[in-house]
Design brief:
The chain is of the alpha/beta class and 372 residues long. 37% of the residues lie in helices and 17% in strands. It is built from twelve helices and 13 strands. It has a six-stranded parallel sheet with strand order 10-9-11-12-8-13, sandwiched between helices. A five-stranded antiparallel sheet has the order 1-2-3-7-4, with helices on both faces. Strands 5-6 form a two-stranded antiparallel sheet. β5 and β6 form a beta hairpin. The protein starts with a strand and ends in a 20-residue tail after the last strand.
Length: 372
């Protein structure tokens, strides 16, 4: 009897799918990635199987890392982190299943059919002990309550087939109406049950040489949050802390997306600095896209977006796709001087801030709480 190792690693794409599948908020990604990185090196996934006729009996385990790691958070009362760990275990088990299928096919030339787990009609829980006896191993144990130890272990049987069969579901029976993993679209509610229908989201552009572009965007953010909308307030070209962040961070419903890296004034002939700006701005852009995909953005404000677009220190195509393919009800606000025609053409509102007089012309520097 030997246990064979299994590969169960999550890449960036896997983490994104995980967040969708288990209905986590995009804002929880940081904790999820941190916990996964701490946990993964301690996971020892493996499986053992026995074939009887056209049936394969399998035991899969991720080892005892999940038990100790989860218990440590439960003892500290960090329930959400313990829950994330439990979901990570379920996700990694699903990866293990795929590996098991591949390995059994390599050995037998047969495809593994639908799994029959203990507790189902085809394998009553009372039969678990007999199945464990067939497997004849001692690494995974079953207590008197038919609970497997380590906890992230699974025992199942499956028929072997000469042809590949349909077997897994993508959250098809999920009861969450907005779940992005649902196979079939939800039926629309009647107008009487829907209440007031949200109108189509429009695009605003605040541009020009005058003061007030960011100020106007801040005002709209506060108004939208007051109406219960989820606001994503993103800033480009700004690394130092600005005073509005202190207020916006206290308002429920507003998520701030920016970089704290102070890159200074952009010198367009400095390739190294341009690349540093490009990396930071594309990271902000990806974070925005994650929030939109997760349904966490009703109003998107992109403060000073015209500069990285004009200077080529952001993925222009990705930004244009974001604007062109935004959810129908999402509002977008863009600010910055010298707006490119491509951005202006997409705008429903264009407000031009004209400078008649400005203290800077008299040598008065920007003042905290007024200009920043």
């Amino acid at each position: 009897m030997t246990f064979e190792p299994l590969s169960v690693a999550l890449d960036e794409s896997g983490i994104k799918s995980f967040i969708k599948r288990y209905h986590f908020k995009a804002s929880e990604k940081k904790d999820i990635v941190m916990l996964y990185r701490q946990l993964h090196p301690r996971v020892h996934a493996s499986f053992h199987h026995v074939i009887e006729g056209d049936t394969v009996y399998v035991v899969v385990t991720l080892g005892d890392a999940f038990d100790s790691f989860q218990d440590s958070f439960l003892q500290r009362g960090e329930i959400q982190k313990a829950f994330i760990i439990d979901c990570l275990g379920t996700e990694m088990l699903s990866l293990a299943y795929e590996e098991v299928d591949k390995k059994i096919f390599e050995k037998t030339g047969l495809y593994v059919g639908s799994y029959v787990f203990a507790g189902s009609d085809k394998m009553p829980i009372e039969e678990l002990a007999a199945v464990m006896a067939k497997l004849g191993q001692k690494i995974v144990k079953c207590n008197e309550s038919f609970v497997l130890v380590p906890k992230k272990s699974v025992v199942f049987s499956a028929k072997l087939h000469k042809e590949r069969t349909e077997k897994h579901s993508d959250c098809a029976s999920c009861s969450a109406v907005s779940c992005p993993m649902r196979k079939e679209p939800q039926k629309k509610k009647s107008a009487s049950k829907q209440g007031t229908k949200r109108q189509k989201g429009l695009i605003h552009l605040y541009t020009g040489e005058g003061k007030g572009k960011t100020t106007a965007a801040i005002g709209l953010a506060v108004r939208a949050a007051g109406a219960g909308r989820k606001v994503v307030f993103s800033q480009f070209m700004k690394g130092r802390q600005t005073s509005e962040l202190n207020s916006l961070s206290l308002i429920p419903g507003i998520t701030i997306v920016r970089s704290d890296k102070e890159l200074g004034w952009l010198h367009r002939d400095d390739d190294e600095q341009c690349e540093a700006f490009r990396v930071v701005h594309n990271e902000i852009l990806e974070r925005i896209l994650e929030l939109i995909q997760a349904g966490e953005c009703d109003v998107l404000i992109m403060d000073e977006i015209t500069y990285p677009y004009n200077y080529g220190v952001i993925d222009k195509k990705r930004l244009e796709e974001l604007i062109d393919n935004k959810p129908s009800g999402m509002e977008i606000v863009m600010t910055g001087r010298n707006a490119d025609e491509l951005l202006a053409d997409r705008a429903d509102y264009i407000t031009y801030m004209e400078k008649i007089r400005h203290p800077y012309d008299k040598g008065i520097e920007a003042r905290e709480g007024i200009e920043y």
